[in-house]
UniProtKB/TrEMBL annotation:
Domain Core-binding (CB): residue ranges: 37-129
Domain of life: Bacteria
Protein name stated in the entry: Tyrosine-type recombinase/integrase
Organism field: Deinococcus navajonensis
PROSITE patterns: CB, TYR_RECOMBINASE
SUPFAM superfamilies per record: DNA breaking-rejoining enzymes
Domain Tyr recombinase, chain residue ranges per copy: 152-315
Length: 316
């Protein structure tokens, strides 16, 4: 009997326990990265904590990490189903010394990128255990040193660049920028906004993990959205992909004389968080506005002055 290869994530989840184990063992033995990627995705969508609500972005990041780890394991002579107890640490050390391969980038991988690769490799082994292929946990004692430079320092919020770039944006692009820089939306949330999500001065936003929040919109953002007809038949206001939106906004920054300052959409979201904190002095309220589960996350989105408490300690 010929065993039909089923690499699709949903197909793998529907296999019987014995067949799934055979597929997982075979893929690991052959260093078949694509099947192992599908196995990891199937585990993430069917058995992880977030299950089917796992974001597409997380799936993509973990898929890249699994391919990288499988390639390293094959080239390093590591048996995926029977790794050595130090192999997890060896992979971490290799990542920390590997040069970046991104376009236009130099130097080593950032601590956050290393952590992302290790998280994907850990997910692969959870998937292999889920499939009954192994009980190995090579990353149980493997740790990634945190980056000593805070993200708010490496990628600070925009400041004057927002108002400078807006006159160089056509109306739809200006609305997208304001949704990120004034309403605090993630760019993925902003690109998925539908006309029906608007209700007076508020916007209903579906964020990470399917969480829904109501976001108050400022006057400028309301006015920018008011005259926009849907760009898609499903009511979405934007038809751009992330890459297309990035290209357009980078060109607007260049036209405004701030081309070198372009740091992606995340810096616009930090602009919103920083301005709201300056007005409220309340991380909890800022976190609710940005859709954060933890206030610790919110602190990474707010640029606080070095001597923010100078006046308070003056008379200590």
């Amino acid at each position: 009997m010929t065993l039909v290869r089923q690499t699709d994530a949903l197909s793998l989840a529907s296999l019987s326990d014995s067949v799934l184990r055979v597929r997982a063992v075979e893929a690991a033995s052959l260093y078949d990265a694509e099947v192992l990627v599908s196995l990891t995705e199937s585990y993430m969508l069917n058995a992880s904590r977030k299950g089917a609500r796992t974001s597409h972005k997380t799936i993509q990041a973990y898929s890249l990490a699994v391919r990288e780890f499988v390639r390293w394991a094959r080239d390093s002579g590591v048996q995926l189903l029977r790794p050595g107890q130090r192999d997890g640490g060896r992979f971490v050390a290799w990542l920390q010394t590997r040069p970046s391969q991104g376009k236009g980038k130099s130097g080593g991988l950032s601590a956050s990128t290393v952590a992302q690769y290790v998280a994907g490799a850990r997910a692969l082994y959870r998937a292999l255990r889920w499939a009954g292929a192994t009980e190995a946990q090579p990353f149980e004692d493997a740790w990634v040193a945190p980056d000593p430079t805070p993200g708010i320092v490496k990628n600070p919020p925009y400041s004057a660049e927002i108002d400078a770039a807006l006159p160089h944006c056509e109306p739809r692009l200006a609305a997208l920028l304001l949704l990120c820089a004034h309403a605090g939306l993630r760019v993925s949330e902003a690109l998925n906004v539908r006309a029906g999500d608007l209700s007076g001065p508020q916007l209903t936003v579906t964020g990470k993990g399917g969480k829904v929040r109501r976001v108050p919109l400022g006057r400028r953002t309301r006015e920018a959205l008011a005259g926009l007809p849907p760009a898609r038949s499903d009511g979405r206001l934007f038809r751009w992909t992330y890459g297309q939106a990035t290209y357009r906004l980078r060109k607007a920054f260049e036209a405004a004389g701030h081309g070198a300052a372009w740091r992606g959409f995340h810096a616009a979201r930090k602009h919103s968080g920083t301005r709201l904190y300056a007005a409220t002095r309340d991380f909890t309220r800022v976190g609710l506005f940005l859709g954060h589960t933890s206030v610790d996350t919110t602190r990474r989105y707010v640029a606080v002055l070095d001597h923010d408490v100078a006046r308070e300690v003056e008379d200590f």
